[in-house]
Design goal:
Membrane protein insertase YidC, elongated, 25% strand, transmembrane helix, 11 helices, cell membrane, transport, membrane, ten-stranded antiparallel beta sheet, 2 domains, 576 residues, single chain, alpha+beta, Beta-galactosidase, Chain A, domain 5
Amino acid sequence: MEKNTAWAIGLSSVVLIGFFFLQTYFMPKPQPVTQKNETTAVEAAAENSESIEKNIPEKIGIVNSQNSDSLAEENFTLETNKVKVTFTNRGGDIISYELKDHIDSDTNGFIQMADNITDSNRAFAISIGGAENSIVNDIFVSKKIDDNKIGFFKNYVVNNPDGSKGEFTLVKTYTFNPNDYVFKLDVTVAPGENFQGLDLNGSSYSLRTSPQMGPFYNPKVNRYENRQFISYNGKNKKRIILGTNQTKSYEKEWNWVSMAGKYFEVLLCPSDSSSMNSKVTYSSKTELKDKTDAQAIVSRKSVDANGSNDTYYVYVGPRNEKDLRIYNVPENNVWKLDGVRFDNSIQTSGFLSWLEIVLKFLLEMINKLVHNWGVSIIIVTAILKFAMFPITAKTAKSTVKMQALQPKMQALQEKYRDNPQKLNEQTMKLYKEIGYNPLSGCLPMLFQFVILFAMYNLFNNYFEFRGASFIPGWISDLSAGDHVATLKFNLPFLGNQIRILPVIYVISQLLFGKITQNGGTTAGQSAMQMKMMMYGMPILFFFLFYNAPSGLLLYWTVSNLIQLGQQLYINAKIKK
C-alpha cells in the first residue's frame, strides 16, 4: 500500500473517531433566590388579591377569583394532531410532551420530549431571578381556555428596594396549533398594589427548557446519539458540547437557543430578544441516578413597575430541514414568523455544507424514483465513485510508480543512511528521472476525503433515514445498526446485537487493502507498518463502527466494493 494511502486512512480515522465522542449537555441544580440589596426575595401571598387579578390583561383570558392556596395539585392534558402534552398546575409547567408522529424504538411509544422530570426540575418552569435559583413550586390557578390554549397564574408578594411590600401576578399561557410543532408561551408579570418592579441581580425571572428529551440517551452507551446546545444571533451560530455533570454559560447576544439531539430538538425563541439577558446557562447536571440531562436556561431582564408581557415561540419536534425552514417565510407558518432561521440549528459539515446540500438534493431526487432510501444510497454512491474514477485511476497509477521505486529507494537509503541531505537530493533526482510527483497521490486522495467528510455527516444525521427500511428483517432502520439476532449476553465492546453489515464492511476493506499491495516490494520495518495498516485499521474500524447507523455503513461498504472493482480493472490495464 502506498505511504500516502496509509496516511490518508490514518487521518480519516482520527477525524471519524472524533465525531463519535461528541456528547451531552444539561441543567443546574436550584439554589436559593437572592434579590439585589434584599435578604428576602419573593414569598407566596397568603391571601388572594383581587387588585392583582384586575390587572391581568384581559387577552390572557384566565381571570379567576379562586384562591390558589386551597387548590390541590392536578394534571391537564392538551392534544393536537402533532403532540400530546401534559401540564401540572404546580408552577404551570409541562411534565410530558409526546410527538405523535414519531416512535421511540426502545419503548414503542411516542418520542418523549420532556424527559427526566422531577419535583425540582420541570419543562418550561420559571425561577424568580437568575438561572441559579429554584423553580417556582407553588400551585397555580388554571383555566383551559379552549382546545388549544391553557393558562395558569399565581399571586405573589415581593419586597421592594425601599422595604415596602409590592404585589404582582405571574401568568403563563400556552397556545398550540393543531398541525404545528411550534407552540406559543406568554409569560406575564402583571403589576399589583405598590409594585415597584422585579430586579434580582439584573434578572426578573428565568425560563428553562425540558431537562432532557428522547429518545433515551446515555453517552456511555449511545455513541451515535448526542446532545448539543446551539445559540443563533441572526448571523452566526455557536455550538456548545458539555460533558457529564457540567454547567457552562454563553454570554453573547442571541435570537434563539436550542437543545438538540441527533434527530430532535427543543428550540426557544423570544419574540423580543432585546428584553433577554445575554447570558444563557447550559447544564448537564442531573439529580437522577444513571441518567443525564441536557437543559438550557435563559433569563429575562429586570421588570419595572409597569410589569411585562413576553412571548416565546417554542419549537419541539424533528431536527429536520423540511419542518424547520417554514418559519423563514410568514406565509408558510401560522405564527407568521419571518426569517428566524430555525433551520440553522441543523448539523452540517461547516465549510463543506454546500457540498452536503448538493449530495442531499441528488439523494432526494433519486429516492423520488426508487422509493427506497437504501437503494438511493447505493445509487448515489455508485454515481460518485464513477464520477471520481479518473482521480482514482491517477492515484492508482501513482501507487504503482511508487511501488516500482521501492528497490531503488531502499538502495539509496542504505547508501546514504549517514547523509540525510544527500539522500534527499538523490531521491528527488530519482523522482524526476521516472516522472513521479510525490503529491500526485495525495491531492486526489484529499479530494476524495472531502467527499467522504460531507457524505459522513449527511448519512450520519439525515432525518429521513430514521425508521427507513432497506431490507426488512435485516436493515429495517437506516439510522440504527442492522440486526439479525439478539444474544442473551453482551459481547465485549460490541453488545448483544448480531450484525452482518460491519463484517461485510471489514471484509471489503481488507480485500481493497490487499489489492492495492499488488506488486509492492516494501521490506523491513516499512513492510510491517504497511501490514499493520492493512489489517489493523479494518479490525479497529470493525469495533468502532459495529453499532454505527446502517445507512452510513452501507455507503462505506458499497464504496469499498465499487472501488475494489475499479482497482482490479486498473491493475489489469497496467499489466497490459
